[in-house]
Structure formats: C-alpha cells, structure tokens
Amino acid sequence: MPDKGSSEIVLHGIGGSPGICIGKAYLVDKEGVDVVPKYTILNIKLEEEKKRFKAAVKKAIDELHKIIAETPEELRENAQILETHVVLLKDKMLYGRTIDTIECEHINAEWALRKVVLSIKPLFDGMQDSYLKDRGEDVANVSDRIMKHLTGAEGTRIGTIDKRVVLVARDLSPAETSQINLERIMGFVTDRGGRASHTSIIARSLEIPAVLGVEKATRKIRNDDVIVVDGTSGMVVINPSEETLAAAETRKSEFEARRAQYARRGHLPAKTKDGLQLAVMGNIEKPEEVMAVRERGGDGIGLYRTEFQYMARKNFPSEEELFENYKDVIEVMPDKPVTIRTLDINGDKAVAYASEPEENPVLGLRAIRYCLKKPEVFLTQLRAILRASHYGQVRLLLPMISSVEEVRESKRLLAQAIDSLKKDGLPHQKKIPVGVMIEVPSAAIMADVLAQEIDFFSIGTNDLIQFTMAIDRSNRQVAYLYNPINPAVLRLLKHVAQAGARHNIPVFMCGEMAGEGIYVPILLGLGLQELSTNAQSIPLIKNAVRLLNIEQTKKFMDRLLKQTTIQKIESLMQSTYGDLLNNGQSTHWER
C-alpha cells in the first residue's frame, strides 16, 4: 500500500495494450548498452575486429533461435517477429554497413555499430505510418543484442523473475517480451515504443496492460514503487493515493468483467436493436494473426497489411512466397471476405534495398505511387493476390489514392495481371472487387468521382485525420490536434459516406477510429456498413453495436454535424451516449 503521506505522480504515454494493473515496479537493468567505447583499430587488427563483430552477431542469432524454440504456446503466433529480428541481424543495412565502417574508418565494432544505428534510426523516426515507424525499434533491439555480446554486458532475464511485478524499462524487445511469465508479470511500462511496435503487439496478444513511450519512466519510477498502469488511457500513476488506488481497483475489476462478458458473446452478430447487422472485421499484419480474428468472432479480414512480408529482407519476395501467405489467410476464412491492401511503403520505409532517400518520404513516393512507378513490383503482387483469390472471397484495396488517374492506372495493371495469368494457365479469379483507401483529403473530396471507378471505399482515419489537420500525430507538440471528432474530419467522413450512398458503393472503415466503442454511434449514424479493427477489439465493437438503434444514431449524427467545436461535440456525445458506451471502454473522451 502507498504511504499516506506520499504524493502521487502521474505520467502520460501511449496505451499499448488495454487494461489496468496495480503492483510493485521492477526496473529492468539495461546496463552496458548505453556505454559504448571508441578506439582506433590498426590495419593488422582489422580482420580480427570484423571477426569479433561477426561472432557477436552469431551469438545473437543463436540466442534468438533458442528463445524462439522455447516460446510458450500462447505466444507461438508471434514467433515470426523474432524470426524477423534474426533476418535483421544479417541485413546489409545493419550488418554489412557496420563491417564496412570498421574497415573504412578503422574503428572498433561497438562504435561502428553505434554509428550505423544512429544513421539508420532517423529514417524510421521521420515516418508518419505508426506501424512502419516503429520498425525503427526493431533495429534498436537487434543492435542492443549485438552490443551486449560485444561489451560482455549481462542480458535481461525476464523469464527468471520470481515475484508478481510490473516491469519498467527503457525498452523491451520482442524477445524479452516473449519471455514474460503471465503468472509473474502483471504489465509493463517503457520509455520508448509506440502502439504499433512489436512489443505492443505481443502485449495485446497476451492481454496484459502496457503503457509505452513514457518519457523518463525509468528515471521517475524506483524499484518497489507501487504503480498503477492504465493501458487504456496511457496513464501511469506512481505512489497512488488511497483514493486513486481504490478507483483503479474498481476500474480494473469492471474492465476484466466486461472483457470476459464481451469475449463470451463475440461470435454473436453485431445487430442493432432495430435489426441492422453490421460486419465487424479484423485488421492483420501477418498470416498467423487470422486465427485470433476468427476466434474472437470476426466477420472476415477488413485490412490485411502486406508490408510485413517486404520488410527485414535483402530483396523483394517472390510471387510464390506472396501467394502462399495470402492463400494461408484465405483458407482460414474461406467463407468470409478477406481484404488485401496492396503494398503501402514509401521510398525509405521498409525496402531500403530498392529505394531512393527522400527528404519527406511520407509525402513522397509511397504506397500506390511507389507501385505505379515500379510496375514490376506491383504486377508480382497483383498476380499473387489474383491467384490466392481462387480459394476464397478476396477484395483488393488500393492505398494512398489521391486522384482518379491512379485508380485507372491501377485497374489497367490489374487487367494486365489477369491476362498474364490466363496465358500462364494459372487458376485465378477473373474479377475481384476493387476498393480504395480514403486517407488523403483529395480522395475524400473527389469521392463522388472515385465511386464511379471502384467497388467500395475503406476509410483510413489515421492518415486522413493528420493530413486534414496538417499535423504529425507522433509530435507531442501538436498531438492535441489529432482528434477523430474534429468538426472538419466529421464533415469529410459525411461527404464520403454520402458519395458512397449516391453511387451505391459500400463504405467501410479500417482506421483506429473503428476500434473505439465511443465512436460507434457516429459510424452507424454515417451509414457505414463495415468496421475493421484489431482482433482484441472485435467483441467490444460488436457489443457497442448491439446497444444502439440505427435510426437514433442517424438523428444524433445530424445534430453532431451542426456543432462547430470539439468541446461541443464531446459534450453532445457524452450527454447522449456517455452512460451507455463510456462505461469503462475508454477512460476519457479526449483522445
């Protein structure tokens, strides 16, 4: 229990995995990683130094293979994350450049590795896409592992912790997170990381609370401090008062009871009180995640991000590799739709082996722009998708569309891929539904024109909001402007929904807004037919739909669109649906 005289400290970060835990802090030691020596290597010692670096990499690879082999069953589906780290350890961007730096600059392996990582990391840090931005954490994690072997520092042994604690660390690698014993570790807090990091993904699969990106957490929190970790709101309380502790205990019990209740009803249809049935789908990044979507009652795959298969490689995946991955997902969901989004990368995101550096890659050669500029890459993927579509209900989704010309050129290449498969005698679907991501304001404004070219819209709120508001949502200075219920954002969403309705085009949503129960009345009121979110949120969203009346949400949306400030919108949301939907699903209305 906290001392009655102690004053509590509140820290804010990013909610990496929902839930609340209360316990004593256990600081994970990272000694030896930050202290890096620098010294000159003589010519006659260069080969020996390069061998020392290679030996450290070999030890790191062997260590990861051992962890993969010992990964507990509940984390088996995340083993591919660790396998990605194995590939990264030998990637020329890290491995090759470090060896070159040792040789060219005559410096020791530790300093060469540090220099290479410092040159690579900014490429990832400057990205807007949260998933690919957090791949920079993977580079940092594998370099830390090599550094430990170079310096002889002791590694973190999370698996040996023998008491109930909350982990606090500068960072936790996926390998370290994979060693978590659920009977011992209640949750964790890190200085670094984000919601799309692999560490966060594993935390959500384990269903333990996690708050990431808490600046100075390891400086503010001491061993054995009692802390409250709220992974829903992204809040950490150090030395909570008796009142705060009691309130946290209550929220914790309510959250766990609701999660259990929602899970039990996850396979029931998401049908409103007046009979409208909404499809609630799952977002996935890797084929093995499809089982979690099915187990939680997902009505299909609303967004299959295909970038993962292109990352941490030395070259592009083959058509056969892509085909097998897509087929694996489709065969698990043979009777349900699977929406495959085509490659969404930019010049320096995930394929450093085939791209040119850009000053502002987020607004540069990315997603569909990249694919249209590299038709050989695009055609390989289109052929793989078409072949996989032979085994189920596949929908094709084009990302980052900003003009009708891009849609027409994409359709031309799709027709070319179909013709080539026909000539090769390979089984495929001759026609599949083609949709576009609405994530650029120009696409939202031109929705009525785009609707005449395609079969469905899928709204990606993550990019749409930040591009509409001209902000970097990862920038703490302006993050307050990132809000799904900004009046300008709501009006854009309404415009897209109306364009879809006029042209009889279904409108879906696959952005983060679709995974928050408090926004479901808005999305129903807009007339959206399908929502797609992470697997863990599917039961929650289905439950929210079952609490609502579609006609009432339409009237509510009419009132909401007349409001001109976020504050007025929040007030109307709270007064209309607060008691119904905000009962612990989200700690705050403010995002």
Write structural notes for this entry.
The chain is α/β, with parallel strands linked by helices. The chain has 23 helices and 17 strands. The two termini are 31 Å apart. The relative contact order is 0.10. The C terminus is likely disordered.
Task: Furnish the topology, listing elements before pairings.
Blueprint: E1 9-12, E2 14-17, E3 20-27, H1 46-69, H2 79-89, H3 92-105, H4 109-125, H5 130-133, H6 135-151, E4 165-169, H7 174-177, E5 185-190, H8 198-206, E6 210-212, H9 217-220, E7 226-230, E8 235-238, H10 242-264, E9 270-271, E10 277-284, H11 290-295, E11 301-305, H12 319-332, E12 337-341, H13 367-373, H14 375-388, E13 393-398, H15 404-424, E14 434-438, H16 441-445, H17 447-450, E15 456-459, H18 461-469, H19 487-502, E16 507-509, H20 520-526, E17 530-533, H21 538-546, H22 550-560, H23 566-581
Parallel strand pairs: 3-4, 4-5, 5-6, 10-11, 10-17, 11-12, 12-13, 13-14, 14-15, 15-16, 16-17
Antiparallel strand pairs: 1-8, 2-6, 3-7, 7-8, 9-10
Helix pairs in contact: 1-2, 1-3, 1-6, 2-6, 3-4, 4-6, 10-21, 12-14, 14-15, 20-22
Shape: globular
User: How many discrete domains?
Assistant: 3
Could you say what the CATH architecture of the largest domain is? Alpha-Beta Barrel
Give the CA-CA distance, first to last residue.
Answer: 31 Å
For this structure, what is the CATH homologous superfamily of the largest domain? Answer: Phosphoenolpyruvate-binding domains
Q: Averaging pLDDT over every residue, what do you get? A: 84
What share of residues are in beta strands? 5-15%
What topology, given as strand order, has the largest sheet?
Answer: 1-8-7-3-4-5-6-2
Q: What's the CATH class of the largest domain, please?
A: Alpha Beta
Strand count: 17
Uncertain runs are: 30-34, 584-591
Which sheet architecture does the biggest sheet show? 8 strands, mixed
Q: What is the CATH T-level topology of the largest domain? A: TIM Barrel
